Amino acid sequence: MNKKYIAAASAAAVMVSMISVPAFAVDYPGGSQDTRISTAIEPTYTVTIPADTTVAFNALSTDFGAVTLESAQIDPGKAVKVELDASGSLKNAADADKTIAYTINTADNTAFTSASYQTAGDTTALKIDITQEAWDAAFAGSYSDTVTFTVSYVDAE
Amino acid sequence: MPMKKTAVLLLTVLMMCITSLGVYAESATIAAQVPGTHTVTFVIEGGKVEANGTPVDHTIELDRQRVQTYRLIPDDGYILDQLIYDGEDVTEQVTNNCFTAPPLIRDTEFTVIFRPSRLPQDSSKPFPQSSTEQSIRRTSTPSSQTRDANTVHTGDFNEAVGYFTVLLVLSLCLLIVLTGHKQEKHTTS
């Protein structure tokens, strides 16, 4: 019985060693042949947005950082678009009906809603503006609001 | 088998959707704090101020948006001259020595000045005072208006000078009389 097993194993080993991958050769009639080499580089980019900010009492204008395209490897004809979603009202923590109106503006006092960037280093400085009338009418308490920056890869305008 | 094919198809569609979006969102929070109280700082000359029946010290702390009435009490012999609240002259708004401030919305300065109702009389000065001298005396503080009776000032009429003048005139008269008498003696002799 043992001899049978040894014989079978030996035969299997011989058969495995005889397996060979066939190789095929292509016959070229002569001359040159073009070979196409292709690769694809995925677009990459890094965008920084403003951090959490506290506005001082009675401050009419507060620095709110900047939206910046830090690094960019994007396709020609494409851009990185940043959109801002803000309610425009700081809400009282104890009573949501009590609010303080605010606007997020660029340095030239234009309301910021979105911007597109194509070159690394492109930036938009932002500020939070609250009028004196809004401060004077505000009730005591803590106020806050959350704004959302959405970044997308779009066709350049 | 149809269920398996459907599941594979749905999974493929889902993966295609996710990879094609490439949209990212990040949030930032904006916060602010509005204080519950504010400080009123007082500058008072020639009297005192009461709030809710209590004389105020240098400062008081009041609730935000509080409407506070102040009572202005001048010292004896003084009357209200000027009231400045939060940088604005509100003297005209004082009625019956009371002033009601607008809702308090920030730290504020309260300045009230009382002035003497009558200028003090000076017995060593019978001649009418010039208007310039009177205006200078009106703007000076009460303590500086106290004058030393022994000090002589320009325009004062001192009693000693009067006596000396009378003596001088009498001396001259006597001299004239004596001189005239001598001449008569010479003439008669």
What does this structure look like?
The complex is a heterodimer of chains A (157) and B (189). Helix content of chain A is 14%, strand content 42%. Chain A has 157 residues and is mainly beta. Chain A has one domain (44-155): Immunoglobulin-like, CATH 2.60.40. Chain A has a five-stranded antiparallel β-sheet. Chain A has a four-stranded antiparallel β-sheet with strand order 1-3-9-7, with no helix packed on it. Chain A is elongated and about 100 Å long. Chain B is α+β, with helices and mostly antiparallel strands and 189 residues long. Chain B has a domain at 37-116. Chain B has three helices and ten strands. In chain B, a hairpin with a 2-residue loop joins strand 3 and strand 4 (54-55). Chain B is rod-shaped and about 170 Å long. The relative contact order of chain B is 0.11. Residues 121-148 of chain B have low confidence and may be disordered. The interface between A and B is medium-sized, with 34 and 21 residues. Strand 2 of chain A pairs parallel with strand 1 of chain B, so a sheet runs across the interface.
Work out the radius of gyration of chain A.
33 Å
Helical stretch count of chain B? Answer: 3
Chains forming the largest contact = A-B, 34 and 21 residues
CATH homologous superfamily placement of chain A: Fimbrial-type adhesion domain
CATH topology tier name of chain A:
Immunoglobulin-like
Main sheet: strands, sense, barrel of chain A? 5 strands, antiparallel
Mean pLDDT of chain A, as a whole number?
A: 87
Major sheet: arrangement of strands of chain A: 6-5-10-4-8
How far the N terminus sits from the C terminus of chain A, by CA atoms, comes to 82 Å
Regarding CATH, which class of chain A? Mainly Beta
Parts with pLDDT < 50 across at least 5 consecutive residues of chain B: 121-148
State the share of residues found in helices of chain A, binned by percent.
10-25%
Total separate domains of chain A: 1
Q: Tally of extended strands of chain B?
A: 10
* Nearest-integer average pLDDT of chain B: 78
